[in-house]
Structure formats: structure tokens, C-alpha cells
Amino acid sequence: LTKVTLYYKPSSSVSFTGEGMFMNCESLEEIEVEAFRGCNNLEEMHIPKKTLRVGESAFRDCFALMSVTLGSALTSIGDSAFSFCNQLGDVFCTFGKEGYCRWSGYS
């Protein structure tokens, strides 16, 4: 698995299996543009440690998202990746380089 892309209509419903969905996923390189956009019940996201990119608007409008852990290989976060995640309060970085990735579009 190297990419996650979800296609769905805004009026439809998408079910996730819950805990461990991406457990031991060592090669997820990219979370595509709008991959989780509008997933209103998503509360927490741990981006795998080898993921390089989070696409534009990947988590936009995830109103319940409260916590995100960013993996150590992350090199870029697309514009508006976390826009309108109004509950987002905790962002944990597993890398020690300040300014290592670009975070824009958060509101």
C-alpha cells in the first residue's frame, strides 16, 4: 500500500473498520488530495511514520478531528489539509526539525 484515495459523494456514507486500520502499514507514501475530507466522525489520526505527503484538503471539514500525529518522514502537507477541523487541538510531531513541513490553510 503506497497511497490512500477515497472517492465518495458528499451525501454518501463511508465506513471505516476502526482501530488498527493502517496498523503495520510501513509503505504508505501519500494520503491523496481530499482523501478523508468531510469524515465527520474521524476524531484521531496517526499518519504512518513513513508517509511522505499529505495531500491538499486531505482532512478538510473533519469537524470532529481532535488529534493528529505526524510521521517522521513527512515532507509536505498540502494547502488546506486541515481546514475547518475546528476541534483540532493536539498536533504531535515525531520529528525534531522545526519548520520541516509546510502547514498552510489551517483555520
**DSSP helix fraction:** under 10%
Structure class: mainly beta
CA radius of gyration is: 13 Å
Question: Shape, please?
Answer: globular
Description:
The protein has no helices and seven strands. It is 0% helix and 18% strand. It starts with a strand and ends in a 14-residue tail after the last strand. The relative contact order is 0.19. The chain has strands at 3-4, 30-31, 44-46, 53-54, 67-70, 76-77, 90-93. The strands form two sheets. A four-stranded parallel β-sheet has the order 1-2-4-6, with no helix packed on it. Strands 3-5-7 form a three-stranded parallel β-sheet, with no helix packed on it. Residues 99-107 have low confidence and may be disordered. The protein is mainly β.
SSE diagram, text form:
Elements: E1 3-4, E2 30-31, E3 44-46, E4 53-54, E5 67-70, E6 76-77, E7 90-93
Parallel strand pairs: 1-2, 2-4, 3-5, 4-6, 5-7
Offer a quick outline of the entry.
With 107 residues, the protein is mainly β. Helix content is 0%, strand content 18%. The chain is built from no helices and seven strands.
